[in-house]
C-alpha cells in the first residue's frame, strides 16, 4: 500500500468530525477511536478503511476540479465500496 493511502481513514474521519462541529473536541485520541469504531462496525481491515477513505478523498478532489472520478483497482478482488458483508461503506 502506498504511503499516500496509509492514514487516509483517520484523516477523513477527523475532517468530517471537524466539519460537523466537533472540531474543538477532535484530538488524536477521539479521531483514532472514531475511526476504529467505524472500522469494526463495517467489519473492515485497516488497509480496507484506508483505501476506501483515500478513494473518497480522490473523488472529492476531482469533483471540485470538474474532472471524472478516479477508481483504483480493489486489492482483494472485492468491491471496496462494500464491506465484507456486502453493505455499502458510507
Which band does the percent of strand residues land in? under 5%
Series of secondary-structure elements, N-terminal to C-terminal? HHH
Q: Tally the beta strands.
A: 0
Coarse structural class: mainly alpha
Shape: globular
Number of helices: 3
Distance between the termini: 22 Å
Uncertain spans: 73-85
Task: Kindly list the characteristics that best describe this protein.
90 residues; 53% helix; mainly alpha; 3 helices
Report on this model:
This protein has 90 residues and is an all-alpha fold. Helix content is 53%, strand content 0%. The protein contains three helices and no strands. The longest helix is centred in the middle third of the chain and has 19 residues. The protein is globular, with a radius of gyration of 13 Å. The two termini are 22 Å apart. About 14% of the residues have low confidence.
Topology:
Layout: H1 8-22, H2 28-41, H3 46-64
Helix pairs in contact: 1-2, 1-3
What's the gist of this structure?
This protein has 90 residues and is mainly alpha-helical. The chain has helices at residues 8-22, 28-41, 46-64.
Amino acid at each position: 500500500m502506498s504511503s499516500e493511502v496509509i492514514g487516509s481513514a483517520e484523516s477523513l474521519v477527523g475532517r468530517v468530525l471537524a466539519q460537523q462541529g466537533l472540531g474543538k473536541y477532535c484530538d488524536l485520541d477521539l479521531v483514532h477511536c472514531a475511526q476504529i469504531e467505524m472500522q469494526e462496525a463495517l467489519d473492515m481491515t485497516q488497509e480496507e478503511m484506508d483505501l476506501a477513505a483515500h478513494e473518497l478523498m480522490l473523488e472529492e478532489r476531482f469533483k471540485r476540479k470538474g474532472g471524472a472520478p478516479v477508481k483504483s483497482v480493489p486489492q482483494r478482488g472485492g468491491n471496496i465500496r462494500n464491506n465484507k458483508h456486502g453493505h455499502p461503506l458510507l
